[in-house]
Every structure is written in structure tokens, then in C-alpha cells.
Amino acid sequence: MSSPAEFYNSLPPISKAYGTACLLTTVGYQLGLYDYTHIALYYPYVIYKVQVWRLITNFFFLGGFSINFGIRLLMIARYGVQLEKGPFDRRTGDFLWMMIFGALSLLVLSIIPIFETPFLGISLVFMLVYVWSREFPNANINIYGLVQLKAFYLPWAMLALDVIFGSKIIPDLLGIIAGHLYYFLTVLHPLAGGKNMLKTPMWVHRIVARWRIGAAQPSSRTQAQPESNTGGAFRGRSYRLSG
User: In this structure, is the dihedral angle defined by the CA atoms of residues 27, 28, 31 and 37, taken in order, positive or negative?
Assistant: First the structure.
């Protein structure tokens, strides 16, 4: 069994960096180092007081220490890591671009009054869950040892649980919308014969290369090949889970 340090060092770079940032943000909050309202997304302050950091910092706050906070970190450690090691293996730039696109989409969606929320970190994590469910639709998921279902339905099952337990569903809905928008533009539309309208910009690849983040971009012959998938509900790419 690997030690915690070995496990942490084995994590892929983007998921590790995001999970670490979320953990440190909550640790700082619990230690009283800052007031969480100073990092919340509040557009009047962004526009009129030029507090532009709020556009970024709100993505790193997943709440105070609690069971829900632990679950969100575990989501990053499981679904984010499996994406980065699976469909996005040796495609660090593409994974980083997915996160950036998701964050930008959530910022735009949060302008709509019904979607207004001060922190979008939970939504970004839920976007990872949604994309994972589309990449591994046939994986078997066990929820609390009570219900077993295909991974394709996981986001909707978690949304239903939030309704049952009285939690806010807007963050989850935002994540589903952003995740589906990304998956449609990069996978479903091209599979239907359309053009990939969301190719990773070169400046993202340059950042990855400049800072030596992750692995180099592979050639088309060495990229992971998806399984064939014929189910209508599961149309899209489908990868096997290792281990």
C-alpha cells in the first residue's frame, strides 16, 4: 500500500493542483486567515471596484470542513484523476483547456439571475463528474451501498439526492450544463460529422510546455482509443476503467 505522500505525488498535475488549491483555501478559511466574502463572486464589486480576483478565487472555495467538503475533494481525486489519466492521458493541455472553458462557461451562466451563486467551485467539480460519466458511461457505480447504476446516470442520481436532502441544486445544474456544453462541442458534434468548435488554443499548449506541466502531446496514433459504443443513451466515446 502506498503512503499518502506517494499517492499525492502520483496524481496527475491539473487535478492535483486544483484539489490542493481547494484544500488550502478551506484550511485558510478555517484558520481565520481571511473572510470568505472577500473571495466570493459578486459582479458589482468586480465591475465597479475592479476586484477581478473574485473571478478566479470563487472556484477554489468548496465550503468549510464538513462531509460535503470531503465528498467534493474525493470527486476531484476520483473523477478528475480518472479523466486525466484516461481520456486525457498525455493531453494535459486539453484537460487544462476543459477546466478553463468550464470556468468561463460558469462565469457567464452565473450572470443569469436564477443561476446566481457566490461560489462556483462545486459546479466546476460537478462538471468533472458529468464529463466523466460521459467518458465512462458503462462503468458500474454503487451509491451508499444501496443502489447500483451505470455511470451515465451518476450526475442525475446525485442531483436527485441533493433534492431529497434539501441541498441547493443550482450548483449541480450549472455543472451539468457546462459539462454537456463542453462534451457536445468536443465529442458529440464531431462524431455526428461536424467540426470540433472547441479545439485547445495554442497558448494553452504553450503554457503546459513552458512550465513542463504533465506529458507532451502524443501523436494521433498513440492517443487512447475509445471502445465502440452502440447504445443510444450512451452515444459518444467510452473508455474502460483500469484496475
Answer: negative
Q: For 107-138, how does the pLDDT look when each residue is reduced to its tens digit (9 = 90+)?
A: 999 999 999 999 999 999 999 999 999 999 99
Phi-psi sector, 212: left (phi>0), alpha (psi -120 to 50), beta: left
Phi, psi angle pair for 187, to nearest 5°: -125, -60
Determine the 3-state secondary structure of 142 from DSSP. Answer: strand
Q: Which position has the grid cell 467539480?
A: 125
Q: Is residue 141 helix, strand or coil? A: strand
Distance CA 188, CA 90 (A): 22
Contacts 24+ apart (CB under 8 A), 20-27: 21/60, 22/60, 22/61, 22/62, 22/72, 22/73, 22/76, 22/121, 23/73, 25/57, 25/60, 25/61, 25/62, 26/61, 26/62, 26/63, 26/64, 26/65, 26/69
Classify 21 as helix, strand or coil. Answer: helix
SS3 content of the chain, % helix, strand, coil (to 5): 60, 5, 40
Whole-model pTM: value is 0.89
For residues 98 and 126, give the distance between their C-alpha atoms in angstroms, rounded to a whole number: 13
13-30 vs 67-75: helix axis angle to the nearest 10? 160
